[in-house]
Each structure stands twice: as structure tokens, then as C-alpha cells.
Amino acid sequence: MKVKYLFVLALLAGCQKEKTVTAAAPVPEKKTEITLVAEEKFLKTDTIPISEGEEVSKNNYILAHLSDQKADKDSIVTQHYQLDFYQDKTKTVSSKITIEGYQKGSEWGASYGLSSSAPKKSSFIQVSFGYPACGYTQNNYLYYLKNQTLQLVYEWDTMSDSGWGSWVEFTNPTGKPETESFYCKRVAFEPDDNNEDMGTAAHSDSIVFQLKNKHWIKQFLSAEGKTYFEKKMSFNDFHKIK
Fold first, then answer.
1. CA–CA separation, 204 vs 222, rounded Å?
2. Distance set, CA 34 to CA 30, 37, 41 (Å)
3. How many CB atoms lie within 10 A of CB 136?
4. Does this model's pTM top 0.90?
5. Any idea what DSSP says for residue 198?
6. Which of 40, 100, 121, 182 has a CA between 20 and 30 Å from the CA of residue 115?
7. Of 172, 66, 61, the residue nearest 127 (C-alpha)
8. How far does Cα 153 stand from its chain's mean position?
9. pLDDT, tens digit, for every residue of 135-148?
10. What does the DSSP assignment read for 141-186?
11. Nearest to residue 168, comparing CAs of 158, 181, 153?
């Protein structure tokens, strides 16, 4: 009898062991992370056409993006811009510049070459920014864009008021679109206090630029910021008016 009961108990224990199932560990769900590149936000964007003499390039232009603007305690406004250069309507390179002393109503301008009479298809691009009226300071930038490589070669300011003022003149010794050296100087013509038909012409900051290893190097030929030529002359003689 005892053997019979022991057999039944063993049978029940075996059934319970068969029903015991080890729970499988949960498999973590795979999540795909998607990173979105945030678009840079600008306060405003201006389109700058590039002139070639009397014509304007149809496929080449510059977009000037205002990225930041701040005013100090004296209400002098400083602006930060990103200039995007487009060739054949395709963005190629960018440059960042800072404008100090912004005047409301200022406008952009751009032209190819070192002067207004420069040959077309020049790798030099002059960019200007300022209020379009006499007596206001203009910010100027000389860029060199070749083979999708951009260099800010020179930066200066100008001011002109009815033939008087201060500006920079460039000289290309070869007179060709491409050159490996060129010169510039700052020219000033200030009126005489006692005779409105007379003035004083002055030259300063004579500089030579040379292309070395595909990069422009600047070298002063005169003491920086010092006048090396000065002459009193009439307004007509200075502007070669007959």
C-alpha cells in the first residue's frame, strides 16, 4: 500500500516539474535615432549682383546673410554677415565679415576687377557696403576667387563728398585679368580752409600684393598710416578738369 502511494506522489511531482517553464528575457526594442541638421537662421538676406563694367553677371552673384546685430551704449550698431558666393547659380564658397558703425539704409555693391576699366572675367571681386550718399563712409573688401578658393585680400574704407575725401586706388602693372602682382595706395584730397578752389592731395599706405603659393601676400612700401606724398593744388588740376 505504501508503495502504491509513493508511486502516485512521484508521478505528481514529475508532472509539476514538466509544467515549470523558465521565462525568456525580454529582447530590447531597437530604436533608430534620426538627427536633423538645423538650418542656420539669418535675420535677413540681401542679393548682391556683380557688375562687369556696364553689364551685370546673370549667373554669378553674392548672398549677404545678416547673422547678428548689436548696438552698444552709444547706439553704434555692429553687424555680422556671411557672404555666400555663387558661380553659375551654385554656391561655392563663403566669407564672414563684420560691419561696425552700420547706417540704416546702407546698400551693397560688387564688381569684378581691380578698377572700373579692368578686363572682364577677372578673379578679383570688390564688394562695398555703406549708405549711398556723399559724406558717408563705405566699407570695402577685395576678394580673390579662383578654382572655388576664396581669399579676402584687402579691406579698407572710403569717403567721398563732391570730389573731396579719401579712397584707395589699385594699379595692375600687366593690365590683364590675371596677374601675380599689383599695387594700391590711399589717396586723400582735403579742401583748403581759406580757398574753396584749392586743396591738398596726399598719398599714404603704398602696398604691393604678390601671389605666392596661390595665396596673396601684402607688403607695405611706405610706413603704415604715414603720408609719403603731399601737394597743394587746385580742384580742377587734381581731377584733371579742363
1. 7
2. 13, 10, 21
3. 16
4. no
5. E
6. 100
7. 61
8. 12
9. 999 999 999 999 89
10. EEEEEETTEEEEEEEEEEEEETTEEEEEEEE-SS-SSS-SEEEEEE
11. 158
